[in-house]
Amino acid sequence: MPGLHYRGPDGAWKFNPDAARIKEIDYRYDLSVMEGAEQVSKRFRMASMPVQTSRGCTYCCSFCSWLTLYGKSGYYVRPIDDVIHDIVHTVEYTGIRDFIVTDNLFAGDPAYAEELAFRLKRAFEGRETKPRLTALMRADQFADGPGALSDRLIRMLSEAGLANVSLGLESTSSRSLLQMNKKVDLAKYYLASERLRKHGIGMLATFVAGFDGDTYEDVVNISEFGDRFGLFTIQVYARGITPGSTDDLLSAPRNLPDRLDRYFNGHGVCILPGNMMPSDLQRGIFEAAFRFHRMGNGSRKLALRAFQSIWAGMRPHYEALQRIEREILVPEGIYRERVTGGYTLQSKALDALYMDDGRYGQFRSRCATIFREAEPAIVRTPVPVPQAIAASSA
């Protein structure tokens, strides 16, 4: 099968090259082939359906892996007839009206987005059940400047069913935003929030913590920022240095080797941050989530319980990070304690370790041992959350 990655009988990963590139994303849903899909909304009231209108992005943030995933740059759109078909077919066949738009950047082509909004609104004129879309977008699409959407287009999208946007805000630190090549600032964030509220569009946001502008306090304070900003939920991911990304080219030594693959999912810290220890970053991203979701009304409580469950499952990884710090990172000078408290990564010491094949091999082996010894703890009864986090989530 061209383009397939697989593990051979010898355990080595293999790759079949020469995959044929799809020139146009021209599939359509046929949900009748899925047993139990008909009127599934009657059994699952909170069910939602993914739908795609485009692939690719017109930006290139340093941490993003979309170029590696799709193999080339560019922004490609699906035929509008196919998108309309998928949404109408889903509503009629399953009764589901909530859609998650899985684009890397929804409305990256404003002319296409305008035609889609017009056609989608017309498709549901006179119907009692209409779609509700949640789409991943950038804050500067709703602010002034190049690439910003007009008020007219935002209104059209809202009337067509765009109910929520998931904003990739990524950080509240100007230094971190610059490092990740985000090409946006906090002033545009607040301008975007005003325009979205004006058009009645709800906001949630994702953040990426662990860049060099981030301290532990910065990460935790994302909760207060999100509440002031008017978000109804937040997701703070740990920075990941993925293959083929700009971060991979510039910061490969920052990857923590031989971590458990099950934790390389945004929740688990697998890097060496600059202004805090890995375990501090791990604790901070959950502390931020807990603080945010205990504020406001009861609609955040369901997410709070979900994050508490995830944190309980993360305990083996968290404890492994602490052990690696105690036994390796601090004794070998990779992290140095500051006079004012906390720890700072020593880049020269890390680079020297990374460039020495023998020392780095030993480092990898010791990390692997610590992570594997923590693995059996997953099947045991979860350890209660740390006292600080438990207090913040009470």
What does this structure look like?
This protein is of the alpha/beta class. It has a domain at about 30-210: TIM Barrel. The chain is about 40% helix and about 15% strand. It contains 14 helices and twelve strands. The protein has helices at about 65-70, 80-95, 110-125, 150-160, 175-180, 185-200, 215-220, 220-230, 245-250, 280-295, 300-330, 345-355, 355-375, 385-390, and strands at about 5, 15, 50, 55, 75, 100, 130-135, 160-170, 200-210, 235-240, 335, 345. The chain has a six-stranded parallel sheet. Helix 2 runs parallel beside helix 3, helix 8 (about 220-230) packs parallel to helix 10 (about 280-295) and helix 11 (about 300-330) packs across helix 13 (about 355-375). The longest helix is centred in the last third of the chain and has 29 residues, at about 300-330. The chain is globular, with a radius of gyration of 23 Å.
- Give the N-to-C terminal Cα separation: 52 Å
CATH architecture of the domain at 29-209: Alpha-Beta Barrel
Specify Rg, calculated over alpha carbons: 23 Å
The CATH C-level class name of the domain at 29-209: Alpha Beta
Mean pLDDT: 89
Low-confidence stretches: 378-384, 386-394
Number of helices: 14
For the biggest β-sheet, the strand order reads 3-6-7-8-9-10
Largest sheet: 6 strands, parallel
| CATH level-3 fold name of the domain at 29-209 | TIM Barrel
CATH homologous superfamily designation of the domain at 29-209 = Aldolase class I
Shape: globular
What fraction strand? 5-15%
Helix content class: 40-55%
Name the helix and strand elements from N-terminus to C-terminus, one letter apiece.
EEEEHEHEHEHEHHEHHEHHHEEHHH
Structural class: alpha/beta
